[in-house]
Design a protein that fits this description.
Length: about 100
Protein backbone atom coordinates (compact mmCIF):
# COMPACT_ATOMS: atom_id res chain seq x y z
CA UNK A 1 0.00 0.00 0.00
CA UNK A 2 1.30 3.42 -0.94
CA UNK A 3 1.56 5.66 2.09
CA UNK A 4 0.37 9.21 1.90
CA UNK A 5 1.40 11.62 4.58
CA UNK A 6 -1.28 14.18 3.78
CA UNK A 7 -4.95 13.42 4.20
CA UNK A 8 -6.78 13.56 0.84
CA UNK A 9 -9.42 16.21 0.40
CA UNK A 10 -12.98 15.00 0.86
CA UNK A 11 -14.84 15.03 -2.49
CA UNK A 12 -17.53 17.22 -0.90
CA UNK A 13 -14.94 19.93 -0.32
CA UNK A 14 -13.80 19.67 -3.93
CA UNK A 15 -17.40 19.81 -5.11
CA UNK A 16 -17.94 22.99 -3.15
CA UNK A 17 -14.69 24.82 -3.98
CA UNK A 18 -14.17 23.70 -7.57
CA UNK A 19 -17.73 23.54 -8.86
CA UNK A 20 -20.34 25.17 -6.66
CA UNK A 21 -18.49 28.39 -5.79
CA UNK A 22 -17.31 29.17 -9.35
CA UNK A 23 -20.79 28.47 -10.74
CA UNK A 24 -22.52 30.42 -7.97
CA UNK A 25 -24.57 27.37 -6.96
CA UNK A 26 -26.10 27.05 -3.52
CA UNK A 27 -26.66 23.71 -1.85
CA UNK A 28 -30.39 24.11 -2.39
CA UNK A 29 -30.04 24.94 -6.11
CA UNK A 30 -27.61 22.09 -6.82
CA UNK A 31 -29.67 19.60 -4.81
CA UNK A 32 -32.71 20.49 -6.90
CA UNK A 33 -30.73 20.08 -10.14
CA UNK A 34 -29.42 16.70 -8.97
CA UNK A 35 -32.83 15.51 -7.78
CA UNK A 36 -31.64 14.83 -4.23
CA UNK A 37 -32.51 16.35 -0.88
CA UNK A 38 -30.79 19.45 0.37
CA UNK A 39 -29.93 17.53 3.54
CA UNK A 40 -28.09 14.83 1.56
CA UNK A 41 -26.05 17.34 -0.44
CA UNK A 42 -25.32 19.42 2.64
CA UNK A 43 -23.92 16.35 4.41
CA UNK A 44 -21.62 15.65 1.43
CA UNK A 45 -20.44 19.25 1.05
CA UNK A 46 -19.82 19.51 4.80
CA UNK A 47 -17.82 16.26 4.68
CA UNK A 48 -20.20 14.25 6.85
CA UNK A 49 -21.36 11.85 4.12
CA UNK A 50 -19.79 9.92 1.27
CA UNK A 51 -20.31 10.10 -2.47
CA UNK A 52 -22.40 7.07 -3.46
CA UNK A 53 -22.46 5.59 -6.97
CA UNK A 54 -25.88 7.20 -7.52
CA UNK A 55 -24.62 10.63 -6.47
CA UNK A 56 -21.49 10.14 -8.60
CA UNK A 57 -23.66 9.50 -11.66
CA UNK A 58 -25.79 12.56 -10.93
CA UNK A 59 -22.76 14.80 -10.38
CA UNK A 60 -21.06 13.54 -13.51
CA UNK A 61 -24.13 14.29 -15.58
CA UNK A 62 -24.69 17.75 -14.09
CA UNK A 63 -21.05 18.85 -14.08
CA UNK A 64 -19.80 17.11 -17.24
CA UNK A 65 -17.32 14.94 -15.37
CA UNK A 66 -17.08 11.18 -15.01
CA UNK A 67 -18.65 9.14 -12.20
CA UNK A 68 -15.27 7.48 -11.74
CA UNK A 69 -13.75 10.83 -10.81
CA UNK A 70 -16.10 11.19 -7.85
CA UNK A 71 -15.91 7.54 -6.79
CA UNK A 72 -12.10 7.47 -7.00
CA UNK A 73 -11.86 10.62 -4.85
CA UNK A 74 -14.22 9.07 -2.32
CA UNK A 75 -12.34 5.77 -2.31
CA UNK A 76 -8.99 7.49 -1.74
CA UNK A 77 -10.42 9.58 1.07
CA UNK A 78 -12.17 6.66 2.77
CA UNK A 79 -9.17 4.35 2.51
CA UNK A 80 -6.86 6.98 4.03
CA UNK A 81 -9.34 7.60 6.86
CA UNK A 82 -9.65 3.92 7.75
CA UNK A 83 -5.91 3.28 7.48
CA UNK A 84 -5.17 6.15 9.86
CA UNK A 85 -7.98 5.74 12.39
CA UNK A 86 -8.12 1.96 12.77
CA UNK A 87 -4.93 -0.02 13.27
CA UNK A 88 -6.47 -3.50 13.67
CA UNK A 89 -5.66 -4.30 10.03
CA UNK A 90 -1.93 -4.06 10.83
CA UNK A 91 -2.18 -7.22 12.94
CA UNK A 92 -3.09 -9.35 9.90
CA UNK A 93 -0.22 -11.62 8.90
CA UNK A 94 0.59 -11.92 5.19
CA UNK A 95 -0.17 -15.29 3.63
CA UNK A 96 2.96 -16.95 2.36
CA UNK A 97 2.70 -18.44 -1.12
CA UNK A 98 3.91 -21.96 -1.83
CA UNK A 99 7.39 -22.29 -3.31
CA UNK A 100 7.31 -23.75 -6.83
Amino acid sequence: MRTRTRKPTHPGGILHRMHMEPLGLTITALAQRLGISRKTLSAIVNERASITPDIALRLSRALNTSPELWLNMQQGYTLWEVAHTNTDWKAVEPIKTAQV
